[in-house]
């Protein structure tokens, strides 16, 4: 039989047969005078065995020893496969849990799940640019801080996304998004004052509860991100806020 007939009988594709040849689990038969490879029923049996092994997760590189009856510990192999599948199931379960958490708050799939519920609680209305800046900052924070730092960031987000604070945050952020070349020094100073008034109580609470999270090692990364995402007036405002809170 030619490759097409073998593929049809075995329930695989001709491309799969070529791959089996390439990785060495199925020997390439001689070609007939018409150029087609000549397969026989023994090749069909081998392909069916390959399919069966693949269906329980045996990697192709492990198959030759089993297919060629070389001494191989079948029980050990099955134990290894079971351990690998258990790990995969655990990983998939965690992924589904994360998806459920993000879906429950209507959050984007690329947000850190620890911060997503708080970000989703903020009222809509920010400009797309500022919304993207907030999202990217949360991604950086969640990745770069340690567990203690992340816990503190979560507390900050929780306080700022509460029913009393969230509308105020949204209003101040909306003013921040409108800063530009026409903004006056007074507008920048007033907005910085609004940010400090909003953030100072939370910052003091965090400072009293535990040592301040040290972000000095990653300060350059945040500075680079801010410089590329915000205009000059917005950067001046944040610099003033940082100065007054430090």
Q: What is the structural class?
A: mainly alpha
Give the overall shape.
elongated
Please give the number of β-strands: 0
Please provide the ordered H/E string of secondary-structure elements. HHHHHHHHHHHH
Helix fraction, binned, reads: 55-70%
Gap between N and C termini, in Å?
Answer: 79 Å
- The low-confidence parts are none
Q: Please tell me the overall pLDDT.
A: 84
Radius of gyration computed on alpha carbons: 30 Å
Strand content: under 5%
Number of helices, where a helix is a run of at least 4 consecutive DSSP H or I residues: 12
Biggest sheet, open or closed, and with what strands and sense?
none
What key attributes describe this structure?
mainly alpha, elongated, 246 residues
Write the layout of secondary structure elements.
Elements: H1 3-10, H2 14-23, H3 41-55, H4 63-67, H5 74-104, H6 116-121, H7 128-144, H8 147-160, H9 165-177, H10 185-209, H11 219-229, H12 232-245
